[in-house]
C-alpha cells in the first residue's frame, strides 16, 4: 500500500472502478461534467483547475469565448460535479500595470500553499509564459510577476516548499503549437525570482513509449505520497492527423523532484470516448487538477476533452503505483 500524504477529503466525487476494467484510470459514467456552453459567452470550457474550498469546491476554469479568446473564470460547487461558473472573467489586481495587461490566459492550475491558493496559467506576454497569482477567497485575485521569460507553458507548483524553496514544473516551448517539449523544475524563495533549474523528464523517442514522443507537460499539482511525488502529465504524439494527447504518470524523488524514480511506459488514459475524440481539437485528454483523499488513496482527475468540454476520471495511488511498477519505462 502506498499512502497519500494529504488532508482527508471524504466528500470528494467518486465512483468505484467498473468490475473487470483493465486500465488504472476509469471515467465518471456521466461525463462530461461541464458542457461547452456552461456560461452564456462560452464556446468551450475545458483544461480547468479544481480545489477543495470551504465545505465544497472552487475552481478556475478555462472558458474560451465565442470570439475564441481564452480567459480564466472562477466557479463553485458543493459536490465537485455540478458547477456554477461566474459569467465574467477573473480580474487581477497587482503592483504593476505592465503585468496586469491581458493578452490571453489559459490552462490554469490552482495550488494551496501555506495560507493561500496560488494560480498559475499560460499567460500571453509577447508570447506564452507562466502567469502567477493568488487568492485567499476566490473573490479577490492578485497577480504577481510572470515566472519566466516567454516561451513557456504548463507551469505547475508543488504544494509545499521543498528544500525551503517554492518549486515549479514547467515546459519551455515556442510561440506556436510546439513540436517539442520536456519538463523542467525551477525554484524560488519568494515566488518572484525563479532559478536553479533542473531537467526532470524528456519525451521518449523509441517505440517503447511512442505516445509521449513529441512533447510532455505537467498536469495536476504533484501528489505527495510516502514513496515520492506522484505526477500525472500529458504526453503527445504527432500523427498524420495531428497531435494526440494522452495522460501518463511518474514518481519523482521527494527531496530532489528532478529525479525520476518510476515512469509508466503505457498511457493511463487516452482519447477514446466520443467527447474526447470529437470537438474543437480532436483526440485530446488534458489533465489540469486532481482531488485526493489521504484516507482512501482516492484520486479524482479533472481533464479537458477535445479542447471543448470538461471530464472527470478516477484512480487511486495504488492503481497508479502498481501500473508503473508492472510497466516501467526502462530507457528514460
Ligand atoms: C496545447 C494547449 C492546450 C490544448 C492542447 C491541445 O498546446 O493549447 O490548451 O489543450 O494544446 O490543443
Automatic annotation (TrEMBL):
GO molecular function: glycosyltransferase activity; hydrolase activity, acting on glycosyl bonds
Leader peptide range in chain numbering: none
Keywords: Glycosidase, Glycosyltransferase, Hydrolase, Transferase
Pfam family, one: Glyco_hydro_130
InterPro entries: Glyco_hydro_beta-prop_sf, Mannoside_phosphorylase
Domain of life: Bacteria
Coiled-coil boundaries: none
UniProt similarity note: Belongs to the glycosyl hydrolase 130 family.
Protein name: Glycosidase
Amino acid at each position: 500500500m502506498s499512502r497519500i500524504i494529504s488532508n482527508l477529503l471524504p466528500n470528494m466525487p467518486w465512483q468505484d472502478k467498473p468490475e473487470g476494467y483493465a486500465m488504472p484510470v476509469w471515467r465518471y459514467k456521466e461525463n462530461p461534467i461541464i458542457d461547452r456552453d456552461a456560461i452564456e459567452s462560452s464556446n468551450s470550457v475545458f483544461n480547468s483547475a479544481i480545489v477543495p474550498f470551504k465545505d465544497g469546491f472552487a475552481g478556475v476554469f478555462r472558458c474560451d469565448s465565442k470570439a475564441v479568446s481564452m480567459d480564466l473564470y472562477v466557479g463553485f460547487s458543493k459536490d465537485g460535479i455540478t458547477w456554477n461558473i461566474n459569467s465574467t472573467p477573473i480580474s487581477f489586481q497587482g503592483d504593476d500595470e505592465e503585468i496586469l495587461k491581458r493578452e490571453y490566459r489559459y490552462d490554469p492550475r490552482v495550488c494551496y500553499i501555506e495560507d493561500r491558493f496560488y494560480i498559475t496559467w499560460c499567460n500571453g506576454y509577447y508570447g506564452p509564459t507562466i502567469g502567477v497569482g493568488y487568492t485567499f477567497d476566490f473573490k479577490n485575485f492578485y497577480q504577481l510577476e510572470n515566472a519566466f521569460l516567454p516561451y513557456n507553458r504548463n507551469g505547475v507548483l508543488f504544494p509545499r516548499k521543498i528544500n525551503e524553496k517554492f518549486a515549479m514544473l514547467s515546459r519551455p516551448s515556442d510561440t506556436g503549437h510546439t513540436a517539442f517539449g520536456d519538463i523542467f523544475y525551477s525554484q524560488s524563495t519568494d515566488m518572484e525570482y525563479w532559478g536553479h533549474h533542473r531537467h526532470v523528464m524528456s519525451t521518449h523517442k523509441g517505440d517503447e513509449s511512442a505516445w509521449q514522443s513529441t512533447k510532455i507537460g505537467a498536469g495536476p499539482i504533484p501528489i505527495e505520497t510516502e514513496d515520492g511525488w506522484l505526477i500525472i502529465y500529458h504526453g503527445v504524439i504527432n500523427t498524420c492527423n495531428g497531435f494526440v494527447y494522452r495522460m501518463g504518470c511518474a514518481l519523482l524523488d521527494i527531496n530532489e523532484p528532478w529525479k525520476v524514480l518510476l515512469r509508466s511506459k503505457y498511457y493511463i488514459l487516452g482519447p477514446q470516448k466520443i467527447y474526447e475524440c470529437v470537438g474543437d481539437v480532436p483526440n485530446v485528454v488534458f489533465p489540469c487538477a486532481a482531488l485526493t483523499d489521504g484516507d482512501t488513496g482516492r484520486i479524482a482527475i479533472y481533464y479537458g476533452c477535445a479542447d471543448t468540454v470538461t471530464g472527470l476520471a478516477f484512480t487511486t495511488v495504488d492503481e497508479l503505483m502498481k501500473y508503473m511498477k508492472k510497466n516501467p519505462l526502462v530507457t528514460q
